[in-house]
Structure formats: structure tokens, C-alpha cells
């Protein structure tokens, strides 16, 4: 198949630091190339890929310091570059969200959009205007909380990680817990500190602070960091992240919104590290309470049950990550979706050459 992958330009593919969507796009792209498909990646010029790379920005616009109000211009150029080449593809896979939907309406080939982020009120009408286009969710929970009865979800495909790159260590775990991810209220950074203090464990915080979250950090987090019991180390690369996972007693994940997927949970499991998490969004899909995690409905419950982490089987964590969230499985599931959409388009073309795939009735969910 000739496949186009349309990636965001906020980070490179894969990202140098934090960047969940870009990491997933990277894993998918490279696996598709390994499978023998002809893949074109629309991303930043400093992306690393075996696919054909078409660049609309020199580097990730966030790291480059480009003002946020200009980001949409770069994304638009990315979409325009894709549409100029659309005749070269059998399927276009959009990871850019609502920006691309109006353009995909007139695409000459099969199209599909994976929704990686929650559908917010400010862009909801755009999604609903193009609700007939094929969408993929990254969890069942995502569909429940994001117009599941109104968008044409044709599949659920879990995000994949490079499970083989993660591994457990035989050495004893160190006496700390880990918070890793964006520092913000939605991710529950302040709650992670509360949990760590209540259970008497050191907390290492690793992640970026977006400009929009700087006030939150300054008001709620900064004064709690003492460099010893509560330590903030900033963004980390893969090697640093792996070591943090491997030696942590547990990952603290007190999420405060309906999490679409949560790569942190899958990555932690792949290293045999349990997670202590609030029950929001996809948490119970990714984790298994009392087997790979402690899942609770409140911070107080997580504190009360924290000692259960010592009873969890680290091999169960690694096995769950391998079975459900390996990047090869993700690529295989997407290829099935691509074939179904291409076949449907061919069938409709036989009935009426003027019909476009995305104007067809809803597809049957192939799960």
C-alpha cells in the first residue's frame, strides 16, 4: 500500500523529549515500512524515519520557540503539501485532528483520522460537521467521552510502544515514586506530591512545563520542590526515562481528566513498574487493578491502598504491555483498517464513480 502519515509539527517524529502523538506516529510509520508498505511521512525536517519524509518545518515548532499563534500556519502548509501529492497514495492517515478534516473531504483516496486528543468545545462543531469521515479512537473510553454516538468511529486501535526497548532490572528498586509527563493540573502533579508525602516516599517529577501551565507550576508546585523529598528534573530523553521507570517503586498517575490513552501507563508496565492511578478515561483499559496497578476513585483511596504495590506481579505488568500495547500489534490493526477503507472505496466507485468514500454511510466497526 501507498500510505501517507500526516503528523503534527509541534515536535519532531519521534520527539526528542515529550510528545505522545509524535512518538506513536513514529512507531506506526517505521512498522509499516518494515511490513513492506510505501510510506510517506509529513512531519518536521529533523524527524528520523525510514519512510519518505516531506517537511513543512525545520524542527518542532515548540522547541524552535515559534510563537503559538503561528503554529497553525505551519500545520496548514503541512496539509497543503499532502493534498498536492494526494494522487500518489492509496490511503491518507491524519494524526493532525480537526485542522485537516475540511481538506480530506475532497481527497481522491481513502482517508482516516485518529483522534489522539480530547474533542474540546472550541473545535467540537468542526468534528461534527465532518462526522461522516472515518475516525479511529485510541481507546473505548475515548469514544464514550468524545461524541461516540455522533462520529463515524470505524475502529479502536490502542497506541503502541516499543515494548522490546523497555525492560525490567534485577537490581532492587530504589525508594522513590515517579511522576512523568506534562506538569499541569489535568495531569495531577500537585496530587502526586500529596500522595508521595502521605506515604513517605521521595518523588521525582520529570516533564515539560508549557507556557500555558507556568502559572500552575509557580502557584502550586514550585514551592513544594525541595530537591530531596520532592525533586523536579525537567524533560528527559528516552534513556533517562527508561532508567527512571526501571528503578521506581511505582508511577503516580492521579489524572484529573478523561485520559484518552496514557502512554506513561503502558511504558511503566513494560518495565515491570506498577502504577497508582485515579480511575479516569482509559485507565481501566490500560491498567488492571490489583494486578498491574492500584486504581482508585480518590487521592485518599490511593494513599490508603498504596502498600498494595508491593503485592503486584511485575511479570504481569510486562506481559500485559506486550500483549496489548506492542507497536507491531498497533501497525497490524491499522493495516486492517486501511484495507477495509480502500475496499469500501473501490466498491462504491463501481456503483457510482462520483461518490467519495467519506460521503458513504457509516461503516460497521470492525472490532
Overall 3D shape: globular
Assembly type:
single chain
Number of domains: 2
Q: Into which percentage range does the β-strand content fall?
A: 15-25%
Structural class: alpha/beta
Q: Whole-number radius of gyration?
A: 21 Å
Q: Please count the helical segments.
A: 13
Number of strands: 13
Termini gap: 22 Å
Strand order in space, largest sheet: 3-2-1-4-5-6-7
Note poorly predicted spans. Answer: 357-367
Could you describe the largest sheet, including whether it forms a barrel?
Answer: 7 strands, parallel
Order of helices and strands: EHEEHEHEHEHEEHEHEHEHEHEHHH
Instruction: State the CATH superfamily name of the largest domain.
Output: Glycogen Phosphorylase B
Percent helix among the residues? 25-40%
CATH topology of the largest domain: Rossmann fold
The CATH top-level class label of the largest domain:
Alpha Beta
Judging by the overall fold, what is the CATH architecture of the largest domain? 3-Layer(aba) Sandwich
Give average pLDDT, whole number. Answer: 93
Can you describe this structure?
The chain has helices at residues 20-34, 71-84, 101-104, 121-129, 140-145, 189-199, 214-221, 238-247, 263-270, 283-286, 299-304, 314-325, 327-351, and strands at residues 2-6, 38-44, 52-57, 91-94, 110-115, 134-137, 152-156, 176-180, 202-206, 230-232, 250-253, 275-278, 293-296. Helix 9 (263-270) links the parallel strand 11 and strand 12 (275-278). It is 36% helix and 17% strand. With 367 residues, the chain is an alpha/beta fold. The chain has 2 domains: 2-160 and 327-359, 3-Layer(aba) Sandwich (Rossmann fold); 164-324, 3-Layer(aba) Sandwich (Rossmann fold), CATH 3.40.50. The two termini are 22 Å apart.
